[in-house]
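Here is one such tokenized protein:
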Amino acid sequence: MDLTKILTISGKSGLYKLLANNKNNIIVEALKDKRRYPIFSNEKISSLEEISIYTETGDIPLKDVFVLLYKHTKHQPVDQIIIKDNKLLYELFNEFLPEYDKDLVFHSHMKKICQWYNELLSVGIINEEVVEENNEKIEEEDKNSQENSENKIEK
């Protein structure tokens, strides 16, 4: 799942797809309604690829959080009732990502993650094929890290 061209823009709701870079601005397209907008350099823009969630053992990339959420919800969007209720939101995160850092991840972060997940799911960016592809990459990375640690031990 490549989230490098999926953007969040401070002060604007929803997610946007990067279409073009110009000298003074970028052109984005809203994922929901496909409307195009110029975004200027004074606006805070973040790629979803750059965002990660604090856990007790380190950071976990947002795309991996989306995969875990996708599996936990059985490929369904997160219910709006859960998103609006802080207690239910904390319960959801405790179920699918129990190692998240309770001191650094706030309900506002959880709410955004669930809203972004629902939006990506609705436009087909998150789907079964993408999840399987991500699982294969994670398994390969785990295998490589195990081999590297075994090699260090042998030396």
Q: What stands out?
A: The longest strand covers residues 16-21. The chain has two domains: 6-48, 51-143.
